[in-house]
Every structure is written in C-alpha cells, then in structure tokens.
Specification:
2 domains; 2 strands; 2 helices; two-stranded parallel ribbon; alpha+beta
Amino acid sequence: MGIDLSEEFPKPLTDEVVRAADVVITMGCGDACPIYPGKRYLDWELDDPAGKSTDDVVPVRDEIDRRVRELLVELVPEG
C-alpha cells in the first residue's frame, strides 16, 4: 500500500491515547485490555500476522483496511 512499516511495532494503549480517542479498536485482546468508561470499544478478532509470510499477511491487512474505511464512513458521514 506504499506505507513503510519496517520500523513499526504494536503499541500499548496508554491513558493519554485512549482519553483522546472517540473509538478504541483492539485486535483480539478482549477482556485483557483496559476499559475506560465512556469510550466506545470494538474488538476486531483477526489472524495474528506475526511470523507469517507477506502472502499470508495481505488478507489481514485488507480486512483491517476494509473495517477502517467502514468505520470512517460511520464516524465522518458525507454531508
């Protein structure tokens, strides 16, 4: 998709990040993730891409892209 991810890594949810968010997306951590009152949570259960080949990761990436686009339409309706 033209995005350099070579230096990226999963980041923990911090108080500051969650407080600034309208929606908190977790990916498979369910009840293990901290819950902040008043925030909307979505847990997207996806295959873990760790250690997988690029061909195996592409469907996960595409599913995340689809879900993000769907959420954006919901959060920022045309108008």
